[in-house]
Amino acid sequence: MLWPLVATASLASAVLIGRADAERAVPIPAARTDVPAAPGLQTAVLAGGCFWGMDAVFSHVKGVRAVTSGYAGGRAGTATYDQVSTETTGHAEAVQIRYDPRQVSYATLLRVYFSVAHDPTQVDRQGPDSGPSYRSAIFPQTPQQAAVARAYIAQLTAAKAFPRPIATHVEQGRFYPAEAYHQDFFAKHPTHPYIVAWDKPKLAAFRAGFPTLSR
């Protein structure tokens, strides 16, 4: 995200021009393979640009119990916002999703991820944010998740679901929670200019595109 927590009215006006209602859910097929449901909560880690917007979408998915914003793919010692923002640490801004697989499956989360949570065709950027920390990446937590993620990317590629090649990588790496002020940022700061311009349209698109999955 480009702006500090307190932004000027002029910045807000500039970014809102032509942005409202710009987001639409991309109609993509459901995955052909999925991770079998297992007892208890499961974890998914997904990166797709600023974690504020990813949190905003996945926090409203039925079956999701908790979403934590953080950094994935780098080392623990450099997993801070100031250091990650230098674009030299190898981290990606990501969200850790705790979900009930009896209510929402891993493949369904991936469908939301590819369809509306971010643009999987952008390389090292999302919207106004650029750099490798804003890359599109999936961090599987199990071998089964890795297999499903790779198969779904191949399926969407073969179906030409997007006008440009999918840039999403399947990566390995630990997840580190971000600073407290980044957690639940959408819910706590609904009028922040960045949230209004870039994240509220994503949530609206999710609700319109996945009405039975939205809560």
UniProtKB/TrEMBL annotation:
It is an enzyme of class 1 (oxidoreductase). The active site is at residue 50. It catalyses: L-methionyl-[protein] + [thioredoxin]-disulfide + H2O = L-methionyl-(S)-S-oxide-[protein] + [thioredoxin]-dithiol; [thioredoxin]-disulfide + L-methionine + H2O = L-methionine (S)-S-oxide + [thioredoxin]-dithiol. Its EC number is 1.8.4.11. Residues 43-194 form the Peptide methionine sulphoxide reductase MsrA domain. InterPro entries: Met_Sox_Rdtase_MsrA_dom, Met_Sox_Rdtase_MsrA_sf. GO terms for molecular function: peptide-methionine (S)-S-oxide reductase activity. Keywords: Oxidoreductase. The keyword Oxidoreductase applies. The keyword Oxidoreductase applies. Belongs to the MsrA Met sulfoxide reductase family. Has an important function as a repair enzyme for proteins that have been inactivated by oxidation. Catalyzes the reversible oxidation-reduction of methionine sulfoxide in proteins to methionine. This is Peptide methionine sulfoxide reductase MsrA. It comes from Sphingomonas aurea.
